[in-house]
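Quick note —
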Amino acid sequence: MPTTAERLLSALEPLPFPARLSLTATTARRLADGGHLTALLTDLDARGPYERRLAALAASVGRDAGFLAERLADPDPVVAGYALRAARVLPVPDEAVEAAYDDAPEALRRRLARLLASGGRTALAERLVARLRAEWGDTEAARLLPACSTPFVSRWLPGLAHAVDGWTRLARRHPDPVLDHAEAALADRADGQQREDWWRLHATTVAALARPRPERVRGRGQPVPRGDRPAGCTVAPGGRAARRGRHRAPVGSGRQETGRSHRSHRWSRGKATPEVIASGASVCTFGKGFQRGAFTAWGTPVLAKSVQ
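Predicted structure written out below.
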């Protein structure tokens, strides 16, 4: 007598790929409701790669957290992918996630970091930071900071800042520690060119910080010299926001250029004097978002009104 797995495989054989997925999901849901899913998973998992992937899909649809917890580090990336995605919504224990780090290759460690960053495992992420730093270095440890609590990030960021490769993501999760680091970084850059280089490199991070912490980004100081604003900030009378793909000519030039596109994360070019910055009659572009006003240095007036 054919087993459930054999009957399923026979039914899938003539179907196109989308229909195979649909039938597998329907079968898994029906068997899970009746408490008979385990036998199907065991049978499929003992076969070849195709059948093992079907088993992972069926376990995900049938919400079998135990089956998936054992396959977070599966050598088949498709099987591991089903397990990692399911771990975001199913009660996969922290111990299984931590065990998946044992001798894990870099690609899997990145996927595990994304799982932790999806939320709900803050204590595990904080426990793993020290372990990953000792085993694989600062970059691996810094990758977990978005998944940690804000007080934890405040303590660890000064020592791991050099290894952070996703400042914008970290800024969205923990704006205050990132702002603390940015203020310290700018304070160490007395040279105007160094400050302009910092602005170029961190434009999108500033945009991410401006939404949750507009007052802190804006600051409350006096207008500052040209070196304390983002490099090449465009100026235009009236403070009207620039349109995507358009370029404002310097004030007083008597012309306006159009049709110049700008790559993401780059400032549009132009001139800005302290007087114009102080008046608010300037325009900046941040790649995807366009601001009314001009950013100046941290702790000094930032006239941007909104970030799209």
